[in-house]
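Structure first, sequence second, as always.
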């Protein structure tokens, strides 16, 4: 007879709205807007059916992971009741070997997004400056704001720059550093612009950065950059710059976005401080095993990256042939200028089951970001585009 039941004479509790709770949140979170993941793809899949949908909005890898990664996950199914290795030791060892660094220099994240957020949380707070480029990866602004620090947004290279329109202006970024600067975020190549900078430019940039400023180099697309494109990686400078670190991910070139694994490489001391805030089992068991297996299959990685380069070149040419401006890219997407009719074109494409990423949130409302699909997806995209532009 102890059952709890509704009683008529008890007025329902008024539910407080978002504004009420926001007023009680920390200062940084009060000014925060949640990450915009683009369209609701689950709803689209339900509406169109997966086979009729061309998903080119999230820079996913259409070729998927190495078969070894799938096999490694199946191999883990007997152990789902166990916690994963909190140290991720096997995966770290494989990464250390691959990159020629010590395992103490590696931190694993539930996606590199988690690491980028945690970096600001650990190294920046109220009154501190965090510097990054306009059109830099969206998470840089989110991380800074969430930490309650000041966003110092540096103008990108201009639209009419002869080599790297909208690219990071490394001189201007270096000039924006002050004694209040705690952190600098760079992405090379960058999302959503696709732009990149070279080794010499990066080395002279690092020579100008004071040693007290931590430089984060987000290298989510590093594996996809062509060898002859001269896209700098922070790897070569880690030994000479303790204030430099890089992040990478298994979400893009390795085709494992669904598993959520990224990693950071930096000084052992930096990793040790980051470890203080890491959730103990942040990377799950199947994911650890799959990523280790994926690292072992370099042939699949190279094959996948070669297909991407081939398709990116063809897609960019096909878009340019339609009179569209395509920005330079060393990634698995291209930023495309569609002009004043962008919103309508995007809506028309969506109605046909072709999903791209609108860029209004980045201050580029006349552009769409187009993930490079496989040959079939790109053909369907171009057919839909021809119908919409006609
Ligand atoms: C996709 C992407 C990431 C990676 O995110 P994960 O959380 O590892 O999936 C990080 N940085 C940039 C620039 C990206 O485009």
């Amino acid at each position: 007879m102890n059952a709890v039941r509704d009683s008529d004479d008890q007025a329902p509790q008024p539910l407080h709205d978002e504004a009420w709770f926001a007023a009680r949140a920390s200062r940084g979170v009060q000014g925060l807007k949640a990450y915009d993941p683009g369209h609701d793809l689950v709803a689209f899949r339900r509406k169109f059916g997966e086979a009729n949908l061309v998903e080119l909005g999230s820079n996913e890898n259409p070729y998927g992971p190495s078969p070894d990664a799938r096999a490694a996950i199946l191999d883990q199914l007997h152990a789902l009741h166990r916690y994963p290795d909190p140290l991720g030791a096997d995966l770290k060892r494989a990464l250390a070997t691959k990159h020629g660094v010590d395992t103490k220099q590696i931190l694993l994240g539930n996606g590199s997004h988690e690491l980028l957020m945690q970096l600001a949380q650990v190294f920046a707070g109220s009154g501190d400056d965090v510097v990054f480029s306009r059109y830099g990866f969206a998470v840089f602004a989110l991380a800074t704001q969430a930490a309650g620090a000041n966003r110092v947004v540096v103008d990108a290279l201009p639209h009419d720059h002869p080599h790297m329109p909208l690219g990071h202006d490394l001189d201007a970024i270096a000039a924006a550093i002050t004694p209040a600067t705690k952190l600098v975020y760079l992405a090379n190549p960058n999302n959503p612009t696709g732009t990149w900078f070279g080794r010499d430019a990066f080395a002279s940039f690092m020579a100008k950065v004071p040693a007290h400023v931590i430089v984060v180099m987000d290298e989510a697309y590093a594996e996809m950059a062509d060898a002859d494109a001269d896209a700098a990686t922070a790897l070569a400078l880690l030994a000479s710059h303790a204030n430099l670190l890089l992040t990478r991910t298994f979400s893009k070139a390795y085709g494992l976005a669904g598993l959520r694994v990224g990693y950071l490489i930096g000084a052992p001391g930096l990793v040790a401080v980051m470890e203080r805030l890491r959730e103990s089992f942040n990377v799950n068991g199947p994911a650890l095993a799959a990523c280790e297996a994926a690292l072992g299959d370099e042939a699949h990685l190279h094959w996948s990256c070669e297909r991407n380069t081939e398709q990116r070149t063809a897609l960019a040419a096909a878009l340019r042939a339609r009179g569209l401006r395509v920005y330079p890219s060393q990634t698995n997407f291209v930023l495309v200028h569609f002009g004043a009719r962008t919103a309508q074109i995007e809506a028309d494409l969506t109605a046909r089951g072709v999903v791209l990423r609108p860029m209004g949130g980045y201050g580029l409302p006349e552009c769409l970001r187009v993930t490079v699909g496989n040959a079939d997806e790109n053909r369907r995209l171009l057919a839909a585009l021809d119908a919409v532009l006609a």
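Margin note: The chain has two domains: 41-59+299-389, 67-297.
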